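Q: What structure does this chain adopt?
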Amino acid sequence: MASSSLLVHLTLEEDAMGIDDVVVIGYGTIKKNDMTGSVVAIKAEEFNRGAVVSTQDMLKGKVPGVHIIPGDGGPGSSATIRVRGAASLNASNDPLIVIDGVPIAVDGGKGMANPLETINPNDIESVSVLKDASSCAIYGAKASAGVVLITTKAGKKGQRAHVTYNGRFGWAKNTTSTDFIDTGYDHVRIVNQFMNDSSDGTMDIFRYTEENGGLQKLYEHRNDRTPHPDRPWVEVGNDGKYYYYGNFDWYHSIYNTNRFHQEHNLSLSGGGKDVNYYVSGRYYQQDGVLGGNMIRNKENYKNYSFRAKFDAQLFKWAKWLSLIHI
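A:
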């Protein structure tokens, strides 16, 4: 009887994908495989791409358990952040924001709902979100709703001076037509058509007639965009009442249907043997919806930001770091 055998040698290789990544936590930095608390770290290359206006836009959908609630829709409106929902009925449910190791007050600036609005998204290197009690313990009671740790970009040792610029501009328009009826004659014609098709006579009080609406006068005014000397928009009838025959585009006089926005970012970074630097500036402008001809104070959001980060190795045992943010 003949027999054969096959000998196969299998070798399992360690998959160390991601476990050597360094994560910023409250006590400093730590490798992912050494963490015991609930911490989520996001690097710059993992942020949301596209037209990112604020830090919240970068984080949407990236961190499990973090809910970002949009603002009122106005230009520059601040979003609300909740880490694992609301933790208290009386105390604040806003997470503590820590930028480069410095805790920032909840009202990061005048009119700001959270300090993230003060940061240029292009300056962020990484974001870590501490979600459980053990991770947030170093910050005490003010971190009961979680902590968002932000590390901004810095110059690199031995890097030559590097200048970066990026900018964009565009217009936002309505996705549906805003060509509404703006003539009195067309309005009453449609109302009368509706009344004729649906009314049994009991709703005739809403029907326009020559006696109560001046159909002929409305017809004569149908193409007038401004008052005509021979056809005034307001007349006094034989009954002593005032009648209005003008045409006016109320929608476009109140709302802005062509909303311009622009953004410009400029940064300078570099480093030598002992000194590194990173300087950046940003200008962002956005027109709001309320911007028609009748609106005196038109919605127009403008944001300026400047950030500088310098660090120097003074001695082997001493390092100097300076942060400037405007």
